[in-house]
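Saturday, quiet lab. Running sequence design on the structure tokens for the scaffold JK sent over.
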């Protein structure tokens, strides 16, 4: 059993706390009919499943949830119009079974699948399978997922598109001698990174040449174990970095926008803890340039739907470099919703239905961000096991009396996949939060 504690107890619990000072009157308003989707299947669980289901209900779209045997009584199951068990608790036997999920879509006449984040959200083969079955995948085309999933290929595409990349070696030759030779050209300190990596896995720092051989060997082992791909790349290590990412949204008609940026520099074990929008302490020209670079990145791969282009920023020079693109909705998307007044899930559904984006970059730029927003993630962790992911019953859950859930216009917002008395039936991956808290207030 475990307790979910509030933000002051961050010494024991990573939290998701989002706080925003905004001007509510500047929210974007647009009135459109229900997206032309017959029924939406949500192929995920927990907080993100709840998040998608709430927007679908608001838009009048019938919904289907799929769940493992362990999640039969989970909160998200009760939010859907229909729900189907797809297998036992292990994800590989349930939430990663694309064939079973598509079979449920056929049985229920669902014509769209939202993958959430994690699980099948960045699985190009599943995106292709949806297309072959005549089901809209609420996300990018398979080609875009593949291009951005291979870090070496992604950096080559970005360079060709005029997006700055960190100096390094992204070539195909992977023998030890070639990597050591290229390291000399890159210079030290440098990072050895898995080509197919993410979340800090397969990433090692070599501060000098004497550390390089061990860094290569360790990164290669971890990459092979985590991703089944031991290819590596080398990048110059930025000694004073900031992690700044840009939310993009693109439609099927060539429209693409950047919805401002976020700072995600506060991390633990390479996992984000605090997210902030927009990134503070940077000039207006910087925000425009990094946003425009993110749109170039999205256009370079024919992107559609919501995506996040991540950059590393050199604090000393304010130069920014492409790191990777997450081809899905991010956990931290509420901070962007807070400063734009837009429901990003609604935009995803409208794009999947073939609609053009309802606003232009000029609209967004003229209005500017609506104040400032912070998010901190609340995780279920076992403090006695070095904060490893934990499971158990939620003994106490208290939120502000005026809080709203999954509402992009609310003054106080709490997004949660659990309620008091619920059971987190299996340890969640280290990057999966069980809740997020959004506080919005007017400073005018």
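Result came back. Writing it out in full:
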């Amino acid at each position: 059993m475990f307790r979910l504690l509030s933000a002051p107890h961050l010494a024991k619990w990573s939290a998701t706390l989002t706080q925003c000072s905004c001007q509510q009157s500047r929210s974007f308003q647009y009135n459109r009919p229900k997206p032309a989707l017959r029924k939406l299947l949500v192929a995920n669980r927990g907080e993100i499943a709840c998040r998608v289901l709430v927007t679908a209900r608001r838009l009048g779209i019938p919904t289907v949830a799929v769940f493992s045997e362990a999640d039969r009584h989970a909160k998200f199951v009760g939010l859907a119009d229909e729900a189907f068990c797809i297998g036992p608790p292990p994800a590989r036997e349930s939430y990663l079974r694309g064939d079973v999920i598509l079979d449920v879509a056929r049985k229920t006449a669902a014509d769209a699948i939202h993958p959430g984040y994690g699980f099948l959200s960045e699985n190009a083969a599943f995106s292709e399978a949806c297309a072959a079955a005549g089901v809209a995948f609420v996300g990018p085309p398979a080609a875009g997922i593949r291009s951005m999933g291979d870090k070496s290929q992604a950096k080559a595409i970005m360079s060709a598109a005029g997006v700055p990349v960190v100096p390094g070696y992204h070539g195909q030759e992977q023998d030890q001698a070639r990597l050591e030779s290229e390291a000399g050209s890159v210079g030290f300190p440098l990072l050895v990174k898995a080509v197919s990596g993410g979340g800090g896995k397969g990433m090692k720092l070599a501060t000098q040449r004497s550390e390089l051989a061990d860094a290569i060997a360790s990164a290669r082992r971890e990459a092979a174990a985590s991703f089944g791909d031991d290819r590596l790349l080398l990048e110059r290590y930025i000694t004073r970095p900031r992690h700044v990412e840009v939310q993009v949204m693109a439609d099927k008609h060539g429209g693409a926008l950047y919805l401002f940026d976020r700072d995600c520099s506060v991390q633990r074990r390479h996992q984000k803890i605090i997210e902030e929008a927009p990134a503070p302490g940077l000039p207006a020209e910087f925000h425009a340039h990094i946003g425009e670079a993110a749109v170039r990145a999205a256009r370079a791969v024919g992107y559609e739907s919501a995506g996040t282009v991540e950059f590393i920023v050199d604090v000393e020079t304010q130069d920014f470099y492409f790191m990777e693109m997450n081809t899905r909705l991010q956990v931290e998307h509420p901070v962007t919703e807070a400063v734009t007044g837009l429901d990003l899930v609604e935009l995803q559904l409208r794009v999947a239905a073939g609609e053009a984006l309802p606003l232009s970059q000029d609209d967004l730029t003229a209005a500017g961000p609506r104040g400032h927003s912070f998010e901190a993630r609340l995780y279920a962790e076992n403090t006695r096991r070095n904060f490893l992911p934990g499971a158990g019953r939620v003994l106490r859950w208290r939120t502000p009396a005026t809080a709203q859930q999954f509402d992009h216009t609310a003054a106080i917002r709490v997004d949660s996949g659990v309620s008091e008395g619920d059971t987190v039936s299996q340890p969640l991956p280290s990057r999966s939060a069980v809740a997020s808290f959004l506080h919005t207030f007017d400073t005018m």
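Notes for JK: DSSP finds twelve helices and 22 strands in the chain. The two ends are 44 Å apart (CA to CA). Ask whether to fix the surface positions before the next round.
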